[in-house]
């Protein structure tokens, strides 16, 4: 049976991972966070003091890299770098900025492409990233382009960092976010852009539950799949 694929693209901080994870849970699909794959390569570059702009040196180390995705018993995605679990380590602001830079190199993108496509061949997936609907899975059953204003995204990110005990000033978060938006949208290979057949969802003025409902409806309409019965529904029946 052909697997279903849902592509969710958009700029940093638009809520892609929160919404994609929730949709994967509701429909019983596998959630694939492709940004984490780029972050894993970026972490290696940082540790080896490789300038993320230096494509030549990066290309030379790629063959030594084993970047693997595993899923824990909790169903959460873990990233392995040469066998080491780096799931936490790839979340720092330095890695975010470095991932944005290394992902501009065509060789890095080609190196990671097949891993992403294979996951979608083997599973029903909700995949989030920047180029899923345009490059990785151009035939995806559902394509969503998720946006929100830069200010709203920076505000959400500031609150999230605060909650994790990694507080940063709003203005700094906003400046970083705008820099990454610029990098991601202006690189020559697979830049961030909305696929022609993607549906745009601007969440600036939506609550999280409104965004969740909108996406759930869209996936149901497009794929003919229904969300799995939820525990609370089962208890009621
Ligand atoms: O989604 P994220 O913020 O974790 O992604 C980190 C960086 O990786 C992002 O700035 C751009 C890059 N990226 C990409 O180029 N293509 C993807 N499909 C996912 C992420």
Give me some keywords for this one.
alpha/beta; single chain; binds 2'-deoxycytidine-5'-monophosphate; 3-stranded antiparallel sheet; 237 residues; 8 strands
Model description:
- The chain contains ten helices and eight strands.
- The protein is globular, with a radius of gyration of 18 Å.
- The protein starts with a strand and ends with a helix.
- α2 (34-47) packs across α4 and α7 (150-163) crosses α8 (170-186).
- β4 (77-81) and β5 form a beta hairpin.
- The model has no long low-confidence stretch (mean pLDDT 93).
- It is 50% helix and 15% strand.
- The chain has helices spanning 16-27, 34-47, 55-61, 93-102, 106-122, 132-136, 150-163, 170-186, 208-223, 231-236; strands spanning 5-9, 30-33, 67-71, 77-81, 84-85, 125-129, 142-147, 199-202.
- The strands form two sheets. Strands 2-6-1-7-8 form a five-stranded parallel sheet, with helices on both faces.
- With 237 residues, it is α/β, with parallel strands linked by helices.
- Bound molecules: 2'-deoxycytidine-5'-monophosphate.
- Residues 12, 34-35, 38-39, 96, 99-100, 103, 129-132, 180, 184 line the site of 2'-deoxycytidine-5'-monophosphate.
Present the secondary structure layout.
Elements: E1 5-9, H1 16-27, E2 30-33, H2 34-47, H3 55-61, E3 67-71, E4 77-81, E5 84-85, H4 93-102, H5 106-122, E6 125-129, H6 132-136, E7 142-147, H7 150-163, H8 170-186, E8 199-202, H9 208-223, H10 231-236
Parallel strand pairs: 1-6, 1-7, 2-6, 7-8
Antiparallel strand pairs: 3-4, 4-5
